[in-house]
Amino acid sequence: MDISERLAADETSRTVDTEQNDADVVALRDAILDKLTYHVGKRRAVATERDWLIATAVAIRDLIVDRWVSSTEATYQQGAKRVYYLSLEFLIGRLLFDNLNNMNMIETMRAALAGLDVDLDKLRALEPDAALGNGGLGRLAACFMESMATLDIPAHGYGIRYEHGLFRQVVKNGWQHEYPEDWLAMGNPWEFHRPEVSYNIGFGGSIEAVPISEAAVRHVWHPAETVEAVGYDTPVVGWRGRRVNTLRLWSARSADPLRLDAFNHGDHAGALAEQVRAESITKVLYPSDATAAGQELRLRQEYFFVSASLQDLVRRHIRAFGHISSLPDKTAIQLNDTHPAIAVAELMRILLDVHQIPWEEAWRMTQATFSYTNHTLLPEALEVWPVPLMERLLPRHMQIIYLINALHLGKVRLEYPSDDRLLSSVSMIDEQQGRRVRMSHLAFLGSHRVNGVSALHTGLMRETVFRDLHNLFPERIVNVTNGIAFRRWLFEANPRLTRLLTDTVGPKVLEDENALTALRPLASDRAFQKRFAACRYVNKLALADLIRRELEIRVDPNALFDVHIKRIHEYKRQLLNILEAIALYNAIRARPMDDWAPRVKIFAGKAAASYYQAKLVIKLIHDVAKVVNNDPTVRNILKIVFLPNYSVSLAEMVIPASDVSEQISTAGMEASGTGNMKFALNGALTVGTLDGANVEIAERVGMENIHIFGLTADKVAARRQRGLDAGDLIAASPALSEVLDSVQAGVFSPDEPDRYRGLVDSLRYHDYFLVCADFDHYFATQRHIADIWRRPEEWWQSAILNTANVGWFSSDRSIRDYATDVWDVPAYQASA
């Protein structure tokens, strides 16, 4: 074929593609109008933006359902092994663009809606965030679900359909206030209610031992209370729609919603008491456990969703394979952190009491089926439940836990007959705190694999919280470093950068995360640097506009955007960041003629409702911002911003606009982090400790392209051993001493001069999170960052190399590791 023939063929191909695209747009427009009429019940002339959102979502959902049904049928036909991901959180966020992106339909939908005079971006902003998680744990679960669908792994996610999810954060006069989050107020067009999928969940009651032979009895649990779990299904679309899996969330309802006798006798409120008690289980994510009632509600939540999920998957298994005995061969259940750990005892109950499997075989099956991901070394996050609460609420499960523990300790005692310390350490019952059940030990013993979520974290697990269990079972702990869904956190969140990458590297970058390495030779190319920087600048303009509209604060998009967005917690050290901001403020005022690099410090995150110290840090950030932002001597060199009500959607806007990523947790306390990966993927430079996945990010981007400071995990442990009084450190640091004196004296809180006295005293005399120990190094690192910002070629080379070298942190890679090392299931491999 000569060149003229090739050109003619290309033109014919383009014409065919154009005609097909036009036909797709028309068909999609017709489908939306059909849904507007027959699903929403509105005419085009009177439709609101919300009506258009619902019609659009349902039109997309119809297209997804076809692939969903075919994916499910293929799984049954192939007899494939299924993965079940149990998580108390699924922070899925908005789904409109997520589904359009994965179905490769964004531009087609944009054109279809434009023909109806509807703006797709306005609909995107109108969709509520599904706030079914608190932070990284829930967002990781959402990324993993998307990657399992992308990699063609048959999978179900199981969790709770919280009516209100995490609270809505409102900041008044600098203080956080919590209000119910109402993501379901206008309905959820993505989900399918499954009223026929319901299971009875028991609480309390008694156990009856029924003889079944001279030597054996069957235990029958007679619950005192029964709650119904009803399923709601959301399809989870993989990349290019290759596969659609299911996220099934459970809602609680009373088995007897209305006591008619009480109602007819005039006790209208009392007649609904059982309904209110049952439905409280799925009202709110993480109800405060500061009271005994709150603690009980949390345990009820965890058992409720675990029991419903196990009953559901066992039913599905028997329908597909005929008998429960093959469960470990066809089922892999992943426990996402300690919250679902009661699943070990629940599966044992189902095998023993419902299917009459002998104990030894039931325990073998349970261990072969479960695996457990540990996400934290913090003692307060390694759940323990008081034995009296467990015995009252879950009496049969407590029997099973006692027997698992007795058999386990019996084996340990045979091998280590005189080691009482070891027995106490590996027991599932902690006798030191008023007899509590260690749920992490239950999850460890009931699983065949236990994984950490970064190389550093996994090593620390082996050395600290699970040291003795690891010595008993040295092959059980493995590492699977966390990852993020590039489809969400690059292609969808940063379309400008994505277009630049596809123009430069080619479309293969959309299929294979490792293709990003092709950017490395371009890192020093000035023309490419300018295009990369231009993408960032447009994103910063959008974020600056959001800050102006929401907070009435004007920030310069040419300034360095220094971003710290994550859950507010002492170990994440937002306090260190704001203290450094005060030190910088003092330095600017002392040396106003120096060449300061303009900087905008951006914070966002929620503090737990009962976490006073974290709330006080939020108040301090606002108090400092009020002083700094209104001081004319600073001349806009420094601005401080706190964006309220942090969410997935807000993160999608902030991260692509960020120049600096703050990952400054006390070393040894952040298990992995995934925000660090999202920022680096979008070209932000990390300022961080050698903690969590920062260690592995540094290995891949190069130490010259990440800015590490502070004590290492082993030095943190050594410092704590020596004592937590920071008087010597403060005395040796004039900058820190000045900052703490000003905070304690009420410079930033003239309305209440003693507001931060306790906070400063805790730093002086009990600096557990090593804020003072790391302050000087952190301050110096920030000044080094400012120096690089003044050298654009060096800055953008480093930024590009971050993007180029973090392909390994894809959640696809994480899921392939799980598939190979934990679940024993095949995973689709993207073409190189």
Short overview:
With 832 residues, this protein is an alpha/beta fold. The chain has three domains: 20-78 and 101-127, no CATH class; 79-94 and 129-482 and 819-823, 3-Layer(aba) Sandwich (Rossmann fold), CATH 3.40.50; 486-509 and 522-810, Rossmann fold (3-Layer(aba) Sandwich), CATH 3.40.50. The modification N6-(pyridoxal phosphate)lysine is found at residue 678.
What does this structure look like?
- The protein is of the alpha/beta class.
- Helices cover 50% and strands 15% of the residues.
- The chain is built from 33 helices and 22 strands.
- A nine-stranded mixed β-sheet has the order 5-8-9-2-1-10-11-15-16, with helices on both faces. It has a six-stranded parallel β-sheet with strand order 19-18-17-20-21-22, sandwiched between helices. Strands 12-14-13 form a three-stranded antiparallel β-sheet.
- Helix 25 (675-681) links the parallel strand 20 and strand 21 (685-688).
- It is globular and about 90 Å long.
- The mean pLDDT is 94.
